[in-house]
Amino acid sequence: MKFCIETDPKNSWYLGTRKFDPLKIDKSETIMYQGNGYLGIRACAEEKNLQEKRDMFVAGTFDSFDDEVTELPNLPDILNIKFEIDQKIFSLSNGVIKNYHKYLNLKNGELIRQFDWIIDQKRIHFKFSRFVSMSDVHLFVSKVEVESDSDVEVKITSGIDGQVSNSGTQHLVEGDRRLYDGKIIQLRERTQRSNIELIFNVLHKIYVDEVLLNSKPHIQMDRQKIAGDYQIKLLRGQKLLFVKYANVYTGIDSDVEEDDICDTSIGDIKQHSLGTYAELLNKSARAWDLNVWQRSLVKIAAADITPQVAINFARYQLAANTPPDSRMNIASKGLTGEGYKGHTFWDTEIFMLPYFIFTMPEIARNLLRYRYLGLGGARKKAKSNGYPGAQFPWEAAWPTDGETTPPWGSADIVTGEPMKVLSGFLEQHITSDVVIAVMEYLYASEDQRFAKEMGYEIILDAAKFWASRLEWNLSQKRFEIDNVIGPDEYKEHANNNAFTNYTAHWCIQKAIEIVKLLRNSDPEMYDELNFKLDLDEVYQDWLAKVDLIYLPRPNEEGVIPQDDTYLTKKKINITPYLSDGGHAKIFKKYNLQQVDNLQVTKQADVLLLLNLFEGHFTQAVEQANWDYYEPKTTHDSSLSLSTHAILASDLHLQTKAYQYFEQGCEVDLGTNIGKTTQGLHMAAVGGIWKMVVLGFGGVRIVDGKLRIEPNLPDTWDSLQYQINWHKSLVKVFVDHDTFKVEVMGNGIEFINHGKIYRIAANSKLELPIEIQVEVND
Ligand code: BGC
């Protein structure tokens, strides 16, 4: 695979660059992002650069400005350190830079940048190292080592700079600036509208040749800014070590009482500063190891190291962008950039959640709890559209906010007018996507407690919405769903989008099953839910409607119509418009209205339905739809690629599967500048794990049962992964001849090519890889 970043053939945890390229700076800042899901910092340099995008976010601190929808504010900069050497301000665009090397260690989350700076015939060696702690979510530590080949005067200015904005929008109101104990620098601010208190503390320690200097900062204050100045005389051959301990607390933190955050934050920074950088890094590295690497192990044995780098990158980013607090969810860009305002989409449920369901069920539970907490907002949205039940928002921020999709998007290329964003109104499949995720979690975890406390209520209320959303078509004598946007956002106002109809029907079916189950097995629970949701009344309605819902069936060629009119639209050759990871090329020629009239699909739609509803359609139908829709799909959404890779793998289209796998891994890591500057494509990141474990590893949940049918790429020697199933850990080892399944914990059952296999508690089973007929693709 071709990445925009250097890899090391011997170390799959390494991502680096040996060239400072100001034009690609944005992209590497995104890829080398550091975070722990609470706090996220882009990999900008400590010193400021013109081309950079300096962003730091804390999950959940949403704020709005005027009538705009809420967004995550870019928070005061705790990263910035300014160096002046003999009165010359250090910058990469100043003097000569030699031996530049910046690299991220995915294993422990440490980012290092080192080089020699040659200025006025002096050579100064800088080494910057830093990490966002995985063990103490509020903590960020950075250190700078400086050596010079001649005696120099070093001036360091470091602190907290609140003069930041979100591409122009200022979200923060100035608060106090203080110095505690003569050494702790503090800035307190508040978000404008949401009024969330934010506290930032910084403490510096300076050593020369390992001797701690007793240096008090000379404080500089400016509007929304506080920093300390330090002057050090550094002799040739001496080593200066500057350590910056920083922490961030907010009024919405769940681990601290709001009244205590200031004291706690001060106490913590004092305590942390007793530890060395290495000690704190080790503690964080242990958390990475225990919480992430050991639990989501994936090992690919292949001559090419890049697939292993990609899966390590995916697991790193999923951990670094997932909030530890269930009132928050993963944004479509994580905490890595301003794109999509920090909002959460179906990207979580369909593309990221499978990873957590199978490796860290308690985190999957948290992410679904967020939807439970969002029921209020979902009910509000349904009500405002005239429906009962819960209609989940297309874009979500704080769970109770309800819909947060901005009403306006970019300009139309034909008319020049700003285009209305209809997804918030019409992209209704999100309600089913949440239900699909809840069911998958329940199937995999058998977490009855979650089902009773939250899961059933989500499903039942979603079904209430869908049942009332159905429209009776008198002439056809069936219920239909008109005027929606399906996953293919190039078809606005579609009638009977297959994905929407099938998934809505399925939701109602699941709700009916739950009512039956509860009435029989847990009448008390049923009464409780009945009281809240009027189940007795709606249940009859569901029964009356469910079999009359129109489900577009495969036509004579086996093709499921994406919607009522898709198959009648004009066909064009989409080759010139295939995505290269940048902006949608189709819009250089057509506007959205024109694309609406073409058989051009933005991203997997019917194909995603086939993938999610595995077992509901024959392989012949899957093949027919693949043959029909794949050549019409531009993949303008990065979400498309993983679905195509998995489906191609299922259909034994090895070459295609691998091509899509590579493209899926290259969404952010690849050489296209694309939109990575606005943040990572977290659904594509989740897609990397899906392609490896669900695709090549062959794991699937089929009607609630585990299926394992591996399909190893030719160029790989073996694949090893582990998943959680029914509270047991299942380790799978695949090579070209056999696959072994080892269970740690209770026995499990799984399906392989139609046969059910049972593995007893703590034992293993080895099966031959069923020889597949090679399909010429
Ligand atoms: C895609 C959506 C996705 C959103 C956020 C859009 O371009 O079409 O499916 O949810 O991006 O990632």
Structure description:
Belongs to the glycosyl hydrolase 65 family. By secondary structure, the protein is of the alpha+beta class. Among the domains are: 1-22 and 298-352 and 638-777, Maltose phosphorylase, domain 3, CATH 2.60.420; 36-293, Beta-galactosidase, Chain A, domain 5. Helices cover 32% and strands 26% of the residues. The protein has 20 helices and 32 strands. The strands form 8 sheets. Strands 1, 2, 8, 9, 10, 11, 13, 14, 15, 16 and 19 form an 11-stranded antiparallel beta sheet that branches. It has a 5-stranded antiparallel beta sheet with strand order 7-6-12-18-17, with no helix packed on it. A hairpin with a 3-residue loop joins strand 3 (34-35) and strand 4 (39-41). The mean pLDDT is 95. Residues 332, 340, 345-347, 489, 602-603, 637, 639, 683 line the site of beta-D-glucopyranose.
Distance between the termini: 20 Å
The dominant shape is: globular
The number of helical segments is: 20
Helix content: 25-40%
* Structural class by SSE content: alpha+beta
User: Could you give me the name of the CATH homologous superfamily of the domain at 36-293?
Assistant: Glycoside hydrolase, family 65, N-terminal domain
Low-pLDDT parts are none
Number of DSSP strand runs: 32
Question: Overall pLDDT, averaged?
Answer: 95
Q: Approximately what portion of the residues adopt beta-strand conformation?
A: 25-35%
Describe the sheet with the most strands: 11 strands, antiparallel
CATH class call of the domain at 36-293: Mainly Beta
Rg (C-alpha, Å): 27 Å
Annotated CATH topology of the domain at 36-293? Beta-galactosidase, Chain A, domain 5
Bound molecules: beta-D-glucopyranose
